[in-house]
Structure formats: C-alpha cells, structure tokens
C-alpha cells in the first residue's frame, strides 16, 4: 500500500465540554454523534452557503480533531475563535502530520469517509514510500475533487464540489451556517454545475481554461496532472464532443456519483 505525507494538510484540535455542540452548529456535518476514532467529511460555509473551508473531523475522547488545508489553518482557527463566544472550548494547532494510504488502508489508517476507493488517512508518524503527487494522481483517477485547490474560497457551492455525493453534508442534522441555501439547492434540484474529471492525452491545461461543447461553453478546467484534470462543468452541456484549447477531452463519471450526474458520450 503506498503511503504519502500530505504536507498540504494540517490539524486543529477542538477540545472542551462544548466542543461537539459548538462545531455541530457551524459545520455541514453531524458532529455530536461522531464516535472516538470515527472520521467524517464536511465543511464550514459562508452565510450565503459558499465553501470557505473543507475539512475532515476525527472524533476524540475530549472533542474533535480537524484535518484542514495547511495554508488555511490559521484563518480557520481565527474564524472558529470568532464564533466561540462563551462556549467552553479550546482551539489549538496540532502538529502531528497527515498521511494518506491507498487503495486499501492498512492497520492504523481510518477509511476515507468520502468513498472507500480513496483509501484511508492516518494522523501521526508513518513510513512513507510515495509523495503527494502520487496521492493526487490516485484521487483524480477516483474522480474526487480537492476543494482547497478546485473551489475558489467563497465562490463555490458545496454541492458543485460534490459534497452531497461524498458524504460531506448531513441534510437531517438541522441548522448550520449556509444551511438554507444548501438545502434549497438539493431539495429543488437546482444544481447547474458539478465538478467532474476529464481525461485526455498530454500535458494538463491551465487553471481556468475553457471547456467547450461544440461552440458552447461547457465549463472550466480546475487542477490536474498529465492526462487528467478536474473541471467544473455545466450538467446540461456535458453530452457531446468536448474540447479544451482545441484538444479533445473525455468526461468520466465516477462510480460514486451513481445516477446523480449526467454522463457523456464523448
């Protein structure tokens, strides 16, 4: 099993008697029912319902460990501290490293809650025999977006980044920041765009490159590597011959999407 250190991720410990209800009222995920050692996926949204921070939540005996983007950790600590008010919680940086192992996690790893195909995560020291580019190549092959790189902060709705299909939103838990917009999009089916992978031959395209269906704009390229990129696509324009910069590309609908997103005949 390849194991990679994810230097792009960092940890925050949220502890204290009010840790779980405090986070439960803020995040898209049910926090109060997380058992110690259980890992869930979620996000902190802006009040209008756009993505601010994607995160994993690991239940601990005295609270919750948050797995977040390393370059946004301080900003998230600051925002959580702003929401704390009189809640009895402590919010501190945790310096343990974050590792990913795939395709099947071994002992010590916790299954990735988004989809079993991603493997697992481990918080602490581990023997490394792969790098983060290797892990991202695997993630793209599975077809899962990286919200930190693919979703400009406060410009993308979580459903556009497939959070509803990757166990990142609990629609039964009640209120959270941005809940009204998120629930309305899901309930009314007003999902116009989704992140999906495109495959092609050769080097990756630049971030923001236009995806065309004939002469119609079908979306834009996000992050990627040689042969595969993530793209934000209009779901009503993915059937047909897709191109980027004049090169043909092929849409792949991941198995975890089921029938929720359209397929392409390209």
From TrEMBL:
Q: Which InterPro entries match?
A: CAF17_C, YgfZ/GCV_T_CS, YgfZ/GcvT
UniProt keywords, alphabetically:
Transit peptide
Q: Which residues form the CAF17 C-terminal domain?
A: 193-258
Q: Which Pfam families does its entry note?
A: Beta-barrel_CAF17_C
What name does UniProt use for this protein? Folate-binding protein YgfZ
């Amino acid at each position: 099993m390849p194991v990679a250190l994810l230097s792009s991720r960092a940890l925050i410990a949220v502890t204290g008697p009010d840790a779980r209800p405090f986070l439960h009222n803020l995040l898209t995920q049910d926090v109060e029912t997380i058992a110690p050692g259980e890992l869930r996926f979620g996000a902190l949204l802006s009040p209008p319902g756009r993505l601010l921070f994607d995160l994993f939540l690991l239940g601990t005996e005295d609270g919750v460990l948050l797995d977040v983007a390393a370059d946004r950790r301080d900003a998230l600590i600051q925002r959580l501290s702003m929401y704390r008010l009189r809640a009895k919680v402590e919010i501190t940086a945790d310096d343990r490293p974050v590792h990913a192992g795939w395709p099947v996690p071994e002992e010590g790893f916790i299954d990735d809650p988004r989809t079993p195909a991603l493997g697992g995560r481990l918080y602490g020291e581990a023997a490394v025999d792969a790098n983060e580019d290797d892990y991202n190549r695997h993630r793209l092959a599975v077809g899962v977006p990286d919200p930190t790189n693919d979703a400009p902060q406060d410009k993308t709705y979580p459903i556009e980044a497939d959070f509803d299909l990757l166990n990142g939103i609990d629609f039964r838990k009640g209120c959270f920041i941005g809940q009204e917009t998120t629930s309305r999009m899901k309930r009314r089916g007003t999902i116009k765009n989704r992140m999906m992978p495109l495959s092609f031959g050769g080097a990756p395209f630049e971030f923001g490159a236009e995806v065309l269906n004939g002469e119609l704009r079908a979306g834009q390229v996000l992050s990627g590597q040689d042969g595969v990129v993530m793209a934000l696509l209009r779901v009503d324009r993915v059937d047909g011959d897709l191109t980027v910069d004049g090169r043909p590309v092929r849409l792949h609908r991941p198995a975890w999407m089921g029938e929720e997103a359209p397929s392409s005949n390209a």
